[in-house]
Amino acid sequence: MTPELGQLALILALLLALAQSILPLVGAWRGNRALMAVARPAAAGQAVFVAMAFGILAWAFLRFDFSVQYVADNSNLALPWYYRIAAVWGAHEGSLLLWILILNVWTVALAAFSQKLPEVFASRVIAVMGLIAVGFLAFIIFTSNPFGRLLPMPGDGADLNPVLQDPGMTFHPPMLYMGYVGFSVAFAFSIAALLGGELEQAWVRWARPWTNVAWAFLTFGIVAGSWWAYAELGWGGWWFWDPVENASFMPWLVGVALIHAQAVTEKRGSLRAWTILLSIFAFSLSLLGTFLVRSGVLTSVHAFASDPRRGVFILAFLTIVVGGSLLLYALRAPKVLGGKPFQVVSRETALLISNLMFAVAAAMVLLGTLFPLIGDALNLGRISVGPPYFGFLFPLLMLPVVLLLPFGPFLRWGKGDAPVLKQLLLRAGIAAAACAIVAAFFVDGQPKAIAGVAALVWLTVGVLLYALKRWREMPRGRRYPAEMAGMLLAHLGVGVFVAGVLLSESLSVTRDVRMAPGETQHIGNYDFRFDGVHHTTGPNWTADQGVVTVTRNGSETTVMHPQKRTYPRGQVQTESAVDAGVTRDLYVALGEPMDANDVEGAWALRLYYKPFIRWIWAGGLLMMLGGLVCATDKRFRIKRSARAEAGAEAADGLQIQETRA
Amino acid sequence: MSRLLPFIGFMLLVGLFGFGIWWNTQHDQNAIPTPLLDKPAPAFNLPKLYEPTQMVSKVDLLGKPYLLNVFASWCIECGVEHPVLTAEGPTLGVQLVGYNYKDAPDDAKGWLAKHGNPYDLLIADEPGRTAIDFGVYGAPESFLIDAKGVIRYKHIGPLTPDVMAKELKPAIAAMLKEAP
Amino acid sequence: MPMNPTRKRRLTIVLSILAAAAVAAVLVVLALQNNMNYLLTPSQVQSGEAASYNTFRLGGMVKAGSIQRSSDSLKVTFTVVDAGGVMPVEYTGILPDLFRDNQSVIATGHMDGARFVATEVLAKHDETYMPKELKDAMAKAHEGKQVKDAGNGESGMENR
Prior knowledge:
The complex is a heterotrimer of chains A (661), B (180) and C (160).
Chain A: H1 2-30, H2 33-36, H3 39-62, H4 69-74, H5 81-86, H6 92-113, H7 119-143, H8 167-196, H9 202-232, H10 243-268, H11 272-294, H12 303-306, H13 308-332, H14 347-377, E1 383-385, H15 387-404, H16 407-410, H17 418-442, H18 447-473, H19 482-507, E2 509-515, E3 520-523, E4 526-537, E5 542-552, E6 555-560, E7 563-566, E8 572-575, E9 577-579, E10 584-593, E11 603-611, H20 614-631, H21 642-647
Antiparallel strand pairs in A: 2-11, 3-4, 4-5, 5-6, 5-7, 7-8, 9-10, 10-11
Helix pairs in contact in A: 1-3, 1-7, 3-6, 6-7, 6-8, 7-8, 7-13, 8-9, 8-11, 9-10, 9-20, 10-11, 10-14, 11-13, 14-15, 17-18, 18-19, 19-20
Chain B: H1 5-27, E1 45-47, E2 55-57, H2 58-61, E3 66-71, H3 76-88, E4 95-101, H4 105-115, E5 121-125, H5 129-134, E6 141-145, E7 151-156, H6 161-178
Parallel strand pairs in B: 3-4, 4-5
Antiparallel strand pairs in B: 1-2, 3-6, 6-7
Chain C: H1 5-35, E1 36-40, H2 42-46, E2 56-62, E3 68-69, E4 75-82, E5 85-92, E6 104-112, E7 115-122, H3 130-141
Parallel strand pairs in C: 1-2, 5-7
Antiparallel strand pairs in C: 2-4, 2-6, 3-4, 4-5, 6-7
């Protein structure tokens, strides 16, 4: 009985979403306050029903209701309750339900925190969010219903993909979706601005904190995914440039450009076209990412033949959203693309260049990701684009960004200050060079590692020098406003990240080796002694567990327990053992027994020594933190007078309190 | 106007992609019309699988219709098709001739021992040269050949119950109706 | 006609963007060309389609009973098959978890005489990406019916 209620809830949600989108838009167009006022209550109602639907599905999982096909496909009696909840978003239909739930979370937040925005604008923003909801709810109801029944009801379900039975994978999708879906807010703001023909850039200031938070979540989602791949997949890699990863990385790259473009537009009025277009592309890539990963339909042209409904719907949806917004842009983009002018050497130019790099990087990743599809569609054969394509072009494009980064804060708006820049270049440059030379001895002259150290020092010194400058020049309480602190944190994170990548890639040691119990392998400063394998069990698996004792100069560092698990349906999974450290990770994975009949004998083992690999995720987390801190800046909170201010048709834009930066 | 550029660019991409998909679905046929349909089957002379000294030729098989089923031990799909063939083969009303394709005889015999042997007759084409005359691309493939040695129906891929019901059996029925 | 400084600046900017775009385009094309890997099935390789590629990906199913591991090294040999062809493969290293009989597999490597030497073996049964690609390749090579999945939803990168 209850699963059908879930279906009903979704239909009601769809109806409310329709009301939420159409009525306020009409109202905003006609100046009808009653219609505009429908936006918030409709959004609240939609959220209630979507939450209900989600809750009903979760309840079905908790109650082992295998009469629901989706539950039977993704759980079984042995699955622990926490993974049963995670199973709600473990496959296609449920993850779309999660998506729409999170859209509602953002919409409700927006509805709550936008009370002080001008009514016309706010109702448009909420209406656009409603339009997106309509699309997704329709997709779910008509092509991807999670509440379908399975009769006769089986006694036990299949299982949740063991790969997903892991804490990292449990909260990775929700975090990622918080990011993806969060970009819809920036998108909605841009569309509302285009619809209203807003001349002033005040709306950008309102959009900034939302965009920063969304980007921060996306950063966290990507970091979590990368860390999970490292810990779970057994191959010691943390990024594979595969379509699923690229799908989340593209909106992230565009998001970086977006948050910087928004900063420029807000403060100087320029780069308005960038801000609007970037928000459209960021959200479009989020949508593309969702569908690319979740439905698999876009990855094979031939899949259209077998399941055309989903594919056609997705393509139509994407075309309408992206095509529609670009058309709107063409028709309504501010005719006066003004803003304060700037010289070649200025902060604006630096940001413009780096935005260009990020945009090109995103395009490059898009091309590489879609290339196999294109090749398929044009019958060129089944091509795949290998990681070296991405691995070569991406660092190349990011190099100018890394080089420019320390200069950013030191450059002034409108025009740069040559002596200051020269001084920075000298100080940071010399520090970087010096450290690089010293590092060269420690890393046996490995160029990548040296570059990593140089980049770290270059970026860190740049950040510190600027922080110092602020300390000296600004009075107490105004030294590090949240926006500034966030920027410093995030840029520091970049340095840590780059160092982590370059150092771990150049200095890590991988060894696939056959070991008999008692044998030892020496890697780095460590000795890995294989102490054999024995049998063990877990809640819903059995495993062969190995024991590897790691010593350093004779004293024991750790004992590691890599496993090879077998799940009820026969799936085998490698659970690697990782000994994490600030300066290095030790990593052991079981391969297979050399003789299948003698599990207690020799095994093939994979041993890794990975220096500084944690810095990759630490850097990412610092970036995320930076984004969140930035969003808390008081300047972004709308004062009561904003209504009056925004109402005025000031062609010049708002007077914004600018701290001398 | 430069403001239209992003829109135009995007629609061009969509158009290209959409065209590619449409073009692809037009050329992606499930049933390739074989040039040999309603033409005489090629002449062949192949050894029996279990008695390799005995040869079987097309002439030997004239007079009674048969289903020529191309299979091999290394062919995964044949394993899928085999139970169907075993279950429904006897009900078809025609002889079942197994055509062992590009397979080592021992492997084939082992596979048949394991999965069962529904065939009335088994011939082997280890080099696979005769198969080329039949236009065989791989395994499994099935040919319905009538009493006069003419190919009446060809199926590429495994014979599923669906294919049996919707295509093969009607083809057999049509063929048997006109037989004298 | 003398150019005023704004014009000159604009022109420099436009030209440098064009130049940069040209360089970028060339780099991208080069990078793509060098890193494009075609997927071929054993029957396609046997009919000579692999001749023009140095490195390529071989896709098919692992023939039951063909997996042979060396007892003293990490070398493994096995046979990859599709509807029309057979290909012996050699690989040194640890195989992925999902690797077993009748599993769909994609190996990257090159030909060494009559056998395929793999540098990477993937048996990730990723519902959303690989098997469809492999399925299509195999179906295309066999010119016809869609290959039905033997199992469903095992492991993979589905939910990243």
